[in-house]
Amino acid sequence: MSADANPQATAARGAALAREKLAQAKADAAKRGQLPRREPRRRAPGARRDASDPQPFGRAIMELLAFRGWERSAAVGGVFGRWGEIVGVDLAAHTKPESFVEGEVVVAADSTAWATQVRLLAPTLVRRLNEELGEGTVQRVRVKGPQNGPRPSGGLRVTGSRGPRDTYG
């Protein structure tokens, strides 16, 4: 069996070769008087960050949102994503937020009973959403019930082709 057929032997040989090359590079650097640092570079107290310095991810995202003017949209998306936490699990099981445009939140309910319940809770819902988004962000809650069209009035009708006896009599 050759050494190439055994992946463990190949990996061990590669690791040994890497250690050997690293030791050789350190020895060459020591000869030139350029020893590697033992601790990371520290910035002098009060020194400002350079634009090319890495930034924490959260700060970079917040700066991007502010630069693009997406702060409010991101906050509204966060509220929509946490709808169950904000309104409670019972209400969230029967409603979902659909949109936020110019201070108006549109909420869809799965039945007329739940739509009525949300309409009664609208002032409380506006207050709770403004606690999450900032005062004055949400001014109104509009509720949509189930989107089934109205039932046609009149007697029952069968549509389609006529049967064989429709021409008799």
Task: Describe the model.
- With 169 residues, the protein is mainly α.
- The protein has a domain at 71-144: GMP Synthetase, Chain A, domain 3 (2-Layer Sandwich), CATH 3.30.300.
- It has 6 helices and 3 strands.
- It has helices at 7-32, 57-68, 71-81, 83-87, 89-94, 112-133; strands at 95-101, 104-109, 140-144.
- A 3-stranded mixed sheet has the order 1-2-3.
- The longest helix is centred in the first third of the chain and has 26 residues, at 7-32.
- It starts with 6 loop residues before the first helix and ends in a 25-residue tail after the last strand.
- 9% of the residues are buried.
- Residues 21-55, 142-169 are annotated as: Disordered.
List keywords for this structure.
169 residues; mainly alpha; GMP Synthetase, Chain A, domain 3; three-stranded mixed β-sheet; 6 helices; DciA-like
* Uncertain parts: none
**Molecular shape:** elongated
CATH topology of the domain at 71-144: GMP Synthetase, Chain A, domain 3
SSE string: HHHHHEEHE
Strand content: 5-15%
Distance between the termini: 97 Å
Q: Sketch the major β-sheet.
A: 3 strands, mixed
